[in-house]
Amino acid sequence: MTDGPAFAAEIGRRLRALRQARGLSLSELAHRARVGKATLSALEAGTRNPTVETLYAITAQLDVPFAALLTDPAPAPPAPVLPVHGKAVTALLLETFEDASHTTELYRLHIRPGRRQISPAHPEGVTEYLTVFQGTALVGPPDAPLTLPPGSHASWVSDTPHLYATATPEEVHASLLIRHPRRPRR
After folding, report:
1. Is 156 in a helix, a strand, or coil?
2. 22-34 pLDDT per residue, tens
3. Treating both helix axes as pointing N-terminal to C-terminal, what angle do 5-21 and 37-45 enclose, rounded to 10 degrees?
4. Residue 80 resides in a domain
5. In this predicted model, what pLDDT tens digit does every residue of 106-134 receive, in sequence order?
6. Do 140 and 106 share a structural domain?
7. 116 domain residue, yes or no
8. 159 in the same domain as 102
9. In this structure, are residues 51 and 35 in contact, taking their beta carbons and an 8 Å threshold?
10. What was the pLDDT predicted at 65?
11. pLDDT confidence of 1, banded at 50, 70, 90?
12. Are both 160 and 96 inside the same structural domain?
């Protein structure tokens, strides 16, 4: 995901707090997210750097935006946010917005050529909006991906697995908005 034991420890602290706040055992969350219990335990202990795919699988089962692991909910001076890395994608959280009905995350996104990333499903009703600035992206449903050249944009419901790849040998530079419907806490 990114380098640094302090970063892994902070992600682990936030992950454990979110899991415990929802009354889930380590075993139950690992089962729901389809990750090994030892993997989840190491993530919470801060001894393992996760991939973006693993964190998306976990946050989907916690029913929280991905940004919940990258930022503290308590008002505090903003800490520097580090990029997260997946098989094909590097994402940097730029901002989180909340209104009465949605939480929206804004990311700077780079998609590396020659790699395909299938991101796990988000909770029901989550929508992604991608705007491409450079390169040509292949995104959305893996069986019918959208091709987005520079200057174009698209959106898709992302509560099913979805693809991130490049259509050419050039790296893609884009912005990504992820809108999560707000739900009452369980």
Report:
1. strand
2. 888 999 999 999 9
3. 120
4. no
5. 999 999 999 999 999 999 999 999 999 99
6. yes
7. yes
8. yes
9. no
10. 86
11. very low
12. yes
3: pLDDT confidence band, cut at 50, 70 and 90? low
Clarify whether residues 92 and 152 are in a common domain. Answer: yes
pTM of the model: 0.65
The torsion angles phi and psi of 147, rounded to 5 degrees, stand at: -100, 120
- Using CA atoms, how far apart are residues 97 and 107, in angstroms rounded to an integer? 12
Adjacent-strand bridge partners of 155: 129
Q: What CATH number is given to the structural domain containing 40?
A: 1.10.260.40
- Tell me, yes or no, whether 16 and 59 share the same domain: yes
Q: What is the CATH number of the domain that holds 175?
A: 2.60.120.10
Same domain, 125 and 163: yes
The closest of 144, 135, 138 to 117, measured between CA atoms, is 138
Q: Which amino acid would we find at residue 159?
A: D
> 46: how many CB neighbours lie within 10 A of its CB?
18
Map residue 89 onto helix, strand or coil.
strand
The pLDDT tens digits for 59-116 are: 989 988 888 888 766 554 555 678 889 999 999 999 999 988 999 999 999 999 999 9
Count the Cβ atoms, other than its own, within 10 Å of residue 77: 4
The b-or-e profile of 166-178 (16+ CB within 10 A means b, else e) is bbeeeebebebbb
Alpha carbons within 13 angstroms on the beta-carbon side of residue 51 total 12
**CB-side neighbour CA atoms (13 Å) of 136:** 7
Co-location of 26 and 91 in the same domain: no
Residue 29: which domain range? 5-69
